[in-house]
Structures
1.
Amino acid sequence: MKILLHICCANCALYPLKRLRDEGHEVFGFFYNPNIHPYQEYSRRLDAVKDIENRLAVRMIYLDRYDLEDFLRSVAFREGERCRICYHRRLEATGRAAKKGKFDAFTTTLLGSKLQDYSLIKEIGFAVGREQGVAFYDADFREGWKAGIEMSKELNLYRQQYCGCIYSEKERFAPKKVKRSPSICR
């Protein structure tokens, strides 16, 4: 099959690319990640994807628009749904590109992360596939989580420390608030 693989970052792409190619599929990469903050982080991840494009001969499609403001507007006052919104935005763009490019199916490297909501990603992927008329390729890439980490170290790729959005950056780096017992005044 001719499969369009949404790539969130170069590290997460390594195992899915290998597996899909080993299965005999013709794989193209698709980079669209409007959630990544700050811009320097977006740029580092984009450069790392361009690196594997060249080193691993990955044919890529770039929707290189830094749509941070649109992403933030879409999640404002719905921060608890931010992952659902983010997954949908990226998979919808991938599904549209797959339809336009006459791909047999599309999938995402997000299915390889133990830190993402696997069931929700699949649910959205299948819904987008029905909307676009392109099959969503359901693959559990989590089995290659450790192998992907090792491959990225061997290739000396930039390794990010958080999912990409401003909210995950805060969760990763901001000091955790300590809950205190209410004080009793006397």
2.
Amino acid sequence: MRPLSEPVTRISGKTFSRKYIALGRIVAEWEKIIGPEFAAKAVPVKIDYRAPQGKGKAAAKLASLHIATTESWSTTLHYQKDLILERINGLFGGGWIEDIRFVILPRESLKPPAKSKRLLTEDEKKFLSGMLESLEDQELKTKLETLGREILKRA
């Protein structure tokens, strides 16, 4: 018998690595970064990290953010590239993201998923609040409750 933590750590290691946490932070703050007029027209999809070349460069890895958008909006957003970089690095500090690359997707790919209109039953609400009552971190509790509601609505 092996402890459950062994395979869980191995499986979740990539998912919860620094790269995915960083992308999650960008997604959570996306409307602040890009502005409400572009938020539905472009989506951050990937962060590429690479080591700097040459001996004189800093040891920190450089990052590129990949943004999915349509061909027509990629041109407009290309002119906003410096502003987007400034906002990202202003929110998260330093020259964290060095470059932005645009990934062209078909227009229908960028439509946000439809939100479920189903309401939770009283039993589902009690179940969810019971699972989260022992959490002390209020911000984490709120985010997990929102996630739990969406999962239960779609079940």
3.
Amino acid sequence: MKWLALALLVLNVSFWYVLSSPSGYLLPRNVASGTLPRVGSLKSLDLHKGGPASAESVGYPAGADELSERSCATVGWFDSFTAAQSLAEEVVAAQSYDYQVREIERQLAPLHWVIIPPQPASVALEQLKRLQKRGIDSYLIARGENRNAISLGLFESREAAVSVLEEKKRQNLNAVLVNFPRNQLSYALSFEARSELVEKLVHAAEADYGNNFDFIEINACEGVATSDKTP
């Protein structure tokens, strides 16, 4: 009986000790209940501002309002599609939303043409032979509104053309000065990028191209650019 009483006393003391132990030794009730917050209720925090992080700060796309932060630029002219495309791939593509190389036929200032006016083909041929025998640089115009006229020189400078015209008149040639209309295929590079990057990309493209562009246009984008990166 004595040993039985001693055993019961030890058991009671042990039970009392467990119940009175610090709560840190017990399983927390919130874990046992299985109630965890839903993922949708979690908020990322911007450690610099102490508030909810923006989409940009956690690496997500800025969203639909990003369009208002875009600018569209067009620069030119390039002599070839290849030159514009290469520059776009090397300088613009990595930091732009989209780019496009456009082929444009543009009208240039006319040249100044010294000619002997059109005349019957046989007469023009005979005069051409005489001019070439005298060592005068001359060509027969074979088509166009000045067909069967004789060309005595084509000049960008009006002053140079007038000088040659006066010289030919002193040689008793019935020369006149007319305009020579001309068009040229040129290429422009258009791209769309974040507003704060556009001017930097334009300057980088200009430096890489090694020449000042004939024109630079930067405007707010009117809509979303297409995904097609070729004309």
